[in-house]
Design brief:
Number of strands: 11
Bound molecules: 6-O-phosphono-beta-D-fructofuranose
Low-confidence stretches: none
Mean pLDDT: 97
Largest sheet: 7 strands, mixed
Order of helices and strands: EHEHEHEHEHEHEHEHHHEHEEHH
Number of domains: 2
């Protein structure tokens, strides 16, 4: 018999449930008897021994449901080795609970921070298999993470809605898209929504180039401009600052986010009316799109197979249209960013999209 622990950690996303269902269905279809233990609210559940034994029924009807049936939380890797407020050694506590339940493997679903801790647990001798979740699509070792395509759909819908009102009023509209420090979500939603300007963290922008594009569009008879701004977008001036100087700037920062800074600069320099829309966490919410349901199910099935074969220490990822297993030590601590000279960026530029560079 195999005893499997499972947890979802970090910011949630669509298709977490679909992925867990994929793992469990595969295991239940195998020859060996399997018991599943779900840790609640991410690593916290593993640290403090909050878990529930799960049956097949728990995984029934969840393919289409967003969120996570296990709950999630952020447990920063930076402080994972520090004792908690009661002096508890968190890493030792996780090992102890793993041993207490006599687990054969932990299935961990998460993004970047989650993978650092998963790799640490592997180094500490635990059997771990991980699955790549995040709307940011910034995990190293996989071309795609689940949640990403669903979030692209939501962000694109937001831009589509803005398009009609922008056209009526002849305004400049900014839609701020999530993605943390990378621009995958903004780039894809921006292109899908027909944004005229896309600002990404990986391509620092010059506000004068942004304004030039708006003016060009007006000269050519366009009444409005849509700008998709990544929440991590940065100006050329800010990108040139040292870490210390940038930190100082941010301590006196007067804007709720970068989009408002871009809006204020356009307004001030041109007198144009600019509006900002922030879809925020709606991008992580709702039902997974069909692509994500299939993708997460496939990843889950392959994770289940790895466990049945006793192959541990891998993230199940996606490379060149194949599901692959990637050693955890290759994934942990690395960010997958948009390359400024990637073909998708070049193609966007051919379409006339301005990146402010
Ligand atoms: O990593 C997913 C993500 O949604 C990022 O795009 C965003 O920057 C962050 O999480 C928001 O985190 P929180 O939900 O903790 O506010």
């Amino acid at each position: 018999m195999k005893r499997i622990g499972m947890l979802t950690s970090g910011g949630d996303c669509q298709a977490l449930n679909a992925a867990m269902r994929g793992v469990v269905k595969t295991l239940f279809n195998g020859k060996e008897k399997v018991e599943i233990y779900g840790f609640l609210d991410g690593y916290k559940g593993l640290i403090y021994g909050n878990y529930r034994q799960l049956s097949g029924n728990d995984f029934s009807g969840i393919l289409t449901k967003g969120g996570t049936i296990l709950g999630s939380s952020r447990t920063p890797f930076k402080t994972i080795q520090d004792p908690d407020e009661n002096g508890l050694n968190k890493v030792e506590a996780m090992k102890k609970n793993y041993a207490k339940l006599k687990l054969d493997c932990l299935v961990i679903l998460g993004g970047n921070g989650t993978h650092k801790t998963a790799n640490l647990l592997r180094q500490e001798g635990l059997n771990v298999v991980t699955l790549p979740k995040t709307i940011d699509n910034d995990l190293w070792g996989t071309d795609m993470t689940f949640g990403f395509q669903s979030a692209v759909n939501v962000a694109t819908d937001a831009i589509d809605c803005i398009h009609t009102t922008a056209a009526s009023h002849g305004r400049v509209f900014i839609v701020e898209v999530m993605g943390h420090k990378v621009g995958w979500l903004t780039l894809n939603a921006g292109m899908a929504g027909g944004a005229d300007i896309i600002l990404l963290p990986e391509i620092p922008y010059d506000i004068n180039k942004v304004i030039k594009k708006i003016e060009e569009r007006e000269k050519n008879g366009s009444r409005f401009t849509i700008i998709a701004v990544a929440e991590g977008a940065i100006s050329k001036e800010d990108a040139a600052l040292s870490k210390k100087e940038y930190k100082k700037k941010m301590t006196n920062y007067q804007f709720p986010s970068v989009s408002y800074e871009v809006a204020a600069a356009i307004q001030e320099k041109t007198g144009r009316e600019v509006r900002v829309t922030v879809p925020g966490h709606t991008q992580r919410g709702g039902s997974p799109c069909p692509y994500d349901r299939v993708f997460a199910s496939r990843l889950g099935a392959e994770a289940g197979k790895l466990i049945m074969d006793g192959e541990y220490g891998f993230m199940v990822g996606y490379k060149n249209r194949e599901i692959v297993k990637v050693p955890l030590e290759e994934v942990a601590g690395k960010l997958k960013m948009v390359e400024p000279d990637a073909s998708i960026v070049k193609e966007a530029k051919l379409l006339g999209i301005c990146f402010g560079d």
